[in-house]
Design a protein that fits this description.
389 residues; 10 helices; alpha+beta; 5-stranded mixed β-sheet; 8-stranded mixed β-sheet
Length: 389
């Protein structure tokens, strides 16, 4: 399938983008891998464990490491029927704490409806996970393409949920079976076919998981919801007789693609122009990391007051993240400027901006109820002691 000519790496970013040298090195390393045909790299590019995040790679074989363990990870957007004027952020923050812990619904029925085994990692369904995953309440802040926005069922001032999560323990289990297959898998081999089938299950499971998270959030807020778009960005698919690997690159051959900002930055809703075949039907999926998690421990949240500030945004929004380390690792300055990423995509002729989405409330992790109760009891005891003095 592949000729002797060098692999083309199409970089859809300029010198104005923050791109680490390590990520560029990883692009070259992937280009040298057997059977790689074409690579598209986007302005959210940053180094990953096995390869560059923010890239799409076309090859004649399957490379599970280029996808990793969170198979099917993506972002889903939902519109709520809750009027903005009725929203009380402090109360909403308390209500969304119910997203912590297991989902109490009928997982077997929801899995069966998708022709998935009814016991398929049912215990993890409806859960967000850690890292950069979240459920964010947003408001449609501005629109530049009104017709595209209206076709999606959104309008300025609407409340929406953006959910970022994946296949949780299922993806990890699938990836564990191919951890040592660095040379890739022949898609026609028994092992390649087995991985493909498991991958497809994990991708469908991940999409269902995002829906269940959104349903849990809507139930907590006592409102209804409708899906707007579902854009996976960690997946493989067959394309033009080859295998397309998307690692942190959003599937863009769909009507609308979310581009997530940090919890203190706007997100965007894009329409892919589909004019450039070198983009491999993909777009940037978010702003992309600027600093890795380890280095963030010295860049943010050094004092209690700084950590308290991280629980609020410059938009007047709130952040529910009651894990100190995660709060710091995912601080807004860990990420690139999503507006710069957006502008690079527009300048490259890959996408048009449909609307901006302003963050109001970002849920990442709540403390376990017993821990929260213990802290409240301790606080009350201290207050009682002070009042008796």
């Amino acid at each position: 399938m592949r000729s002797d000519r060098p692999v083309s790496i199409h970089r859809f970013y300029s010198d104005r983008s923050w791109i680490e040298g390590t990520a560029e090195d990883q692009l070259e390393q992937v280009a040298a891998m057997r059977g790689v045909i074409n690579i598209a790299a986007f302005p959210d590019l940053h180094p990953g464990k096995y390869g560059p995040v923010g890239s799409a790679i076309l090859a004649d074989r399957i490379y599970p490491q280029l996808i990793g363990n969170d198979i099917g990870c993506g972002m889903s957007l939902f519109v709520l029927d809750l009027p903005f004027r009725k929203l009380r952020l402090d109360k909403a923050a308390q209500k969304l704490r119910t997203l912590e812990g297991s989902w109490p619904g009928d997982g077997a029925a929801r899995l069966n409806a998708l022709d998935l085994p009814e016991t398929l990692h049912v215990q993890a369904l409806g859960t967000i996970g850690g890292g950069n995953h979240f459920c964010e309440l947003q408001v449609v802040d501005a629109s530049t393409e009104n017709s595209a926005l209206e076709m999606s069922g959104l309008k300025k001032g609407d409340l929406a949920l953006l959910v970022h999560s994946g296949s949780r323990s299922l993806g990890t289990a699938v990836f564990s079976t191919v951890l040592d297959r660095f040379a890739g898998l022949d898609p026609d081999s028994a092992e390649g076919q087995a991985y493909w089938q498991n991958h497809c299950q994990a991708t469908r499971w991940a999409s269902l998981n995002r829906t269940l998270i959104a349903e849990r959030a809507a139930d907590a807020l006592r409102c209804g919801l409708k899906p707007v778009t579902d854009a996976p960005h960690n997946m493989i698919e067959f394309r033009d007789g080859a295998i397309l690997h998307r690692k942190g690159a959003a599937k863009a051959d769909i009507p609308l693609v979310p581009l997530a900002g940090s919890r203190d930055a706007l997100s965007y809703l894009l329409v892919a122009t589909r004019g450039n075949q070198d983009a491999l039907g993909s777009l940037a999926h978010g702003s992309g990391r600027k600093y890795d998690r380890r280095s963030m421990m010295g860049r943010a949240g050094a004092t209690r007051s700084e950590r308290n500030e991280l629980a609020r945004t410059s938009f007047g929004g709130l952040v529910v993240c009651e894990d100190r380390q995660l709060l710091i690792e995912e601080a807004p300055n860990a990420y690139k400027d999503p507006t710069r990423v957006l502008n690079e995509l527009v300048d490259a002729g890959l996408a048009k901006n449909v609307a901006s989405l302003k963050p109001l409330l970002t849920f990442k992790k709540a403390a376990k109820q017993e821990q929260s109760t213990a802290r409240q009891d301790k606080k009350r005891r201290l207050q009682d002691r002070r009042s008796r003095r």
